[in-house]
Amino acid sequence: MSLPGGSGFPFPQRPGGGPAAGMSHQEQQYVKAIEGAGESCAFKSCMAAVMGAGLGAMFGVFTSAMRYDTPLSPTAPEISTLPLRQQLKLGFAETGRAALSTGRNFGTVGFLFSGLECGVSALRAKDDMWNGIWAGAFAGGILARKTGPRGAAVGAGGFALFSVGIEWWLRKGEDEKRFAVE
Question: What CA–CA distance (Å, rounded) separates 175 from 159?
Fold first, then answer.
């Protein structure tokens, strides 16, 4: 990942030359190894899993708070008769279960999609919209594999279509740069 004005994360460009100015040969090799590790498919997949799990856990906490004990639910009379401490215990337990479940699902999707996209990109030796589409199709099929062939095909198609929409939206800015009105 290269940053403007720098060689890449986490080592900024040194004054008076390139990123290796003033470094020994061994230090240059360490910098190269760390930057290479940060750009590997395994690192990207693991980071996507961690970030997906964190986002999913926050989403799970939010959705759990939205579905907790409404007056019209069938369990409302049972929960409302419990002491406050017991109600809080049940509420926090449900929130924890929802955060764990949603976090695990988001982390799995992030890990799978990111790894597949990186792998497809490496196999094709291109960085274009098709990498995300193929990765979405593969990930959707893998995630829906337990539903049978038809379900896997629907999952692959749905995830691929979602990837088309996301890729189109993310790459929309490239057209603004190419066809700038001056």
Answer: 24
Most confident of 12-16, 122-126, 129-133, 158-162: 158-162
C-alpha separations of 46 from 22, 61, 107, 138 in Å: 33, 23, 9, 18
Q: What is the C-alpha to C-alpha distance for residues 47 and 29, in angstroms, rounded to an integer?
A: 24
59 Cβ contact list (under 8 Å, min separation 6):
102, 106
What domain range is 34 assigned to?
Answer: 26-124
Q: Report pTM.
A: 0.72
Give the pLDDT confidence of 102-116 residue by residue, as tens digits.
999 999 999 999 999
The 3-state DSSP class for residue 154 equals helix
The neighbouring-strand residues paired with 11 are 8
Supply 149's token pair: 């062939």
Residue 2 counted as domain residue: no
**How far is 8 from 90, CA to CA, in rounded Å?**
47
Residue 11 in any domain: the answer is no
Q: How many domains are contained in the chain? A: 2
- Residue-wise pLDDT tens digits, 8-55: 555 555 554 555 667 888 888 888 888 887 788 899 999 999 999 999
35 with 100, same domain?
A: yes
